């Protein structure tokens, strides 16, 4: 399961579906592993203290089984933290055309969101600390309506996100973002 580098990708033609940036896999994995480490630091010390202060054999065995269950759960979360970002990269596409933007995502349950230019209220470009480190950004498109009033597309290269925001604003004819 290798991830292509940004240099190995050829830019798609305008109006063609585009992928998110491959560096988003690395950022997603780092964030996932940080989450796993936090879960481990919260759950494992409590179980170890319970093991130390167990009164009898039955209580000790119950706590030991609980500890093994927590370790198995942490292993599954760690596996998901490693695989999910790659799946998100492989199965997320976006396309900008004269009518608006279309975002398709999902491996098992496919979701396609289309935002026409007429529905765009304003657009934000956001970066967290990890994204700033890897020069990535999220774009959030706020729309008129309630169901998808904030449509998020994460994992874009920061310059691409800025260019996408400017393009959507220019095509919409808004004077401010």
Can you walk through the features of this model?
- This protein has 177 residues and is of the alpha+beta class.
- A hairpin with a 5-residue loop joins strand 3 and strand 4.
- Helix content is 47%, strand content 24%.
- The chain has a 4-stranded antiparallel sheet.
- The radius of gyration is 22 Å and the shape is elongated.
- The chain folds into 2 domains: 24-88; 93-172, PH-domain like.
- It contains 4 helices and 7 strands; from the N terminus they run βααββββαββα.
- The chain starts with 17 loop residues before the first strand and ends in a 5-residue tail after the last helix.
Distance between the termini: 39 Å
Total count of strands? 7
Quote the beta fraction. 15-25%
Q: How many structurally independent domains?
A: 2
Going by CATH, the homologous superfamily of the largest domain would be Pleckstrin-homology domain (PH domain)/Phosphotyrosine-binding domain (PTB)
Radius of gyration: 22 Å
């Amino acid at each position: 399961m290798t991830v292509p580098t940004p240099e190995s990708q050829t830019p798609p033609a305008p109006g063609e579906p585009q992928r998110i940036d491959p560096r988003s896999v690395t950022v997603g994995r780092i964030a996932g592993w940080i989450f796993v480490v936090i879960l481990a630091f919260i759950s494992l010390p409590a179980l170890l203290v319970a093991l130390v202060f167990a009164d009898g054999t039955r209580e000790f065995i119950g706590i030991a089984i609980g500890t093994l269950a927590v370790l198995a759960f942490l292993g599954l979360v760690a596996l998901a933290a490693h695989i999910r970002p790659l799946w998100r990269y492989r199965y997320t596409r976006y396309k900008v055309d004269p009518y608006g933007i279309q975002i398709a995502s999902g491996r098992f349950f496919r979701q396609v969101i289309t935002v026409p230019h007429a529905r765009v209220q304003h657009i934000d470009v956001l970066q967290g600390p990890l994204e700033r480190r890897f020069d990535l950004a999220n774009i959030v498109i706020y729309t008129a309506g309630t169901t998808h009033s904030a449509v998020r597309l994460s994992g874009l290269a920061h310059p691409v996100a800025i260019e996408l925001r400017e393009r959507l604003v220019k095509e919409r004819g808004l004077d401010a973002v």
